[in-house]
Amino acid sequence: MRNSSGIRSFLPETRLATKSNLQAMLMLYKSVYLKPDEGTGGHGIMKITRNGSRYIVRRGTVSQTYASYDRLYGSLHRLVSGRKYVVQKGIDLLRHRRRPFDIRVMVQKNRANELVVTGMVGRLAKAGKIVTNYHSGGKPLPVGTLLHSRLRGEKKRRYMNKIAFVGRKASLALGQAYRGNRAFGVDIAIDSHMKPWVLEVNTRPDMTIFRALRNKAMYKRILKYSKFKK
After folding, report:
1. Which of 37, 80, 82, 105 would be a feasible disulfide site paired with 186, CB 3.0-4.6 Å?
2. Is residue 179 part of a domain?
3. CA nearest 227: which of 207, 200, 203?
4. For residues 165-178, b (16+ Cβ closer than 10 Å) or e, as one string?
């Protein structure tokens, strides 16, 4: 996906989580996320923040402070127990009622095998948590509701179209490697400057979060598209 010029500017820097890469990223950015290389529905994600010579690690609702990088890495190395992780630039997420949120964009192929956006839903983190995933306690809300304090009317509509555009571009880019795939779930964060960032693209997206919305029209449309075949 990083080889696609159309989406590159929306991708936060991400590296394999080696000892040297993690240290370099923490020198570049005040905070980073340590994530399993394979998506896990929000499980196993840690936020690491550098505060002078100290490092603060948050997992779920628990925080721990380390006095040096070597102590931090030693603890993380034991914790991940041989699994492959990546380290990603930390995004200062927009908040709704003091809780961070991101957006899941559902992109599916229509009968003509063209990728189209069929739904968008906001995911509001559970109080005290760093992840927004539905199965980790995240609350699904309409995107318009989450953007309402920042944008209104036509500006909000145009911005939501931009989010949909980024979601589709990310799916088109990844679709080059997953040509048989008929659906992608694109997780998009919005920073405090209203810049969208593609955090992850899921090749087997879960539809149940859309079913949790009060208005079922989006969920019904997604179900309809899921029945289209090649």
Report:
1. 105
2. yes
3. 207
4. ebbbbbbbbbbeee
Specify if 7 maps to a domain.
Answer: no
Contact 21, 87 (CB under 8 A): yes
Contact (Cβ atoms closer than 8 angstroms) between residue 57 and residue 71: no
Q: Are residues 37 and 85 in the same domain?
A: yes
| Residues 186 and 123 sit within 8 Å (Cβ to Cβ) | no
Q: Cβ atoms within 10 A of the Cβ of 223, count?
A: 14
Instruction: Residue 101: give the domain boundaries.
Output: 95-226
What predicted TM-score, i.e. pTM, was given to this entire model?
0.91
190-208 pLDDT tens trace: 999 999 999 999 999 999 9
Please work out, in degrees rounded to the nearest 5, the angle formed at the alpha carbon of residue 102 by the alpha carbons of 99 and 108.
155
84 has a pLDDT exceeding 70: yes
Strands 14-16 and 46-51: unpaired
Residue-wise pLDDT for 149-177, tens only, equals 999 999 999 999 999 999 999 999 999 88
